[in-house]
Fold this sequence. Notes:
By secondary structure, chain A is mostly beta strands. Chain A has no helices and 11 strands. The A-B interface holds A 4, 30-31, 33, 41-45, 48, 50, 88, 90, 92, 94, 99-106 and B 33, 40-45, 48, 56, 58-59, 90, 92, 98-99, 102-113.
Amino acid sequence: ELKVEQNPLFLSMQEGKNYTIYCNYSTTSDRLYWYRQDPGKSLESLFVLLSNGAVKQEGRLMASLDTKARLSTLHITAAVHDLSATYFCAVVLVGAGSYQLTFGKGTKLSVIP
Amino acid sequence: DGGITQSPKYLFRKEGQNVTLSCEQNLNHDAMYWYRQDPGQGLRLIYYSQIVNDFQKGDIAEGYSVSREKKESFPLTVTSAQKNPTAFYLCASSIFSLFLADSSYNEQFFGPGTRLTVL
């Protein structure tokens, strides 16, 4: 069974600071997705990471994937209040005749002035 | 204006009743998905459809049923067999199934969600 763990689950950070959210998963996969969810809202796709060493950047967010370590990171640079949201990673596993798509529990980020 | 719509936004159900949640997309996507989200939790996959007239169980399919008779529609029925149906339900679609196509443009788009409460 594919397990996906995010940490931290809660993160309070000051504006202007840098921080990293971690997503670990239990079974080798090279398909990982990051999403953002604002309170009471639906999910928005942020990044699609499909190979070892993949790095994607959008604004103050940068995501990377290390398939050997089974780890993805979401790095926040010089945080601003607008980045306050819950961030989820999701891993897709394609096996012999079986498919799994598992989300982490999410990291709730609060950026304070 | 392309996108995914879900209705209703809020739904109240009495115990023992079946209810159907609507999901429609006009993005011409082959694949559609249903997820359940409980407070403070990630999403869990209920059912997915990789192409019209096909659907497969996800991790928590018990007590739910779906159909995919049209490409643009993927309704979810929550039956009375689902023991704890109160949750936020999200529908999503992608150009191709995430399980079949590992392309960077093949991302999921989500609908606004339906909040189901059992009274």
